[in-house]
Amino acid sequence: ETGVTQSPTHLIKTRGQQVTLRCSSQSGHNTVSWYQQALGQGPQFIFQYYREEENGRGNFPPRFSGLQFPNYSSELNVNALELDDSALYLCASSLTSGSWNFGPGTRLLVL
Amino acid sequence: ILNVEQSPQSLHVQEGDSTNFTCSFPSSNFYALHWYRWETAKSPEALFVMTLNGDEKKKGRISATLNTKEGYSYLYIKGSQPEDSATYLCACGAGTYKYIFGTGTRLKVLA
Fold first, then answer.
1. Nearest residue on chain B to A43, alpha-carbon basis
2. pLDDT of residue B41 exceeding 90
3. Phi/psi class of residue A105: alpha, beta or left (left: φ > 0; alpha: ψ in -120 to 50)?
């Protein structure tokens, strides 16, 4: 059974650019959530997908968008990057309402 | 809006000492509370999922209690070992999908 994987592990972008982060859920998990963790903060909920539909969203602007594919893998897209978007982005997968399995994260630096 | 607080922010203990941390959350609309252990450069690891008032869970030397009426959970580590050094995160859910994380307690166990 493979765990949650994320790619890339590190990324550097400049302001105004767009970025796509990817997450492969744990096998059989149909629910995925994305979190942003800024330095010194706890993870902040961005949104959740369940069977390819967004079913919850945190306090993030529309330039943060996502997709979930039929194999339950997921993407997080961020448009018009800002300096404050620099953070660790975590995805986590779950089956029903059990505990969440987290990926190792993608560290994004916006210059 | 849920506000989840953890204390202390960080602490150092000697090997063999027992220790505990607190996770506080609003008691209204409580759904579940998760504890995670996060070692540097690794993914957060699920420790406990707690849902019922008075729940007590144990995993080896680590245990947790839950009081949903007063809005807190304690995590205990008995006989701390250097390998217990990590950040301990709690996350409180007000529904099946949106979990609010605390900022974590960073534990360092000194040999």
1. B101
2. no
3. left
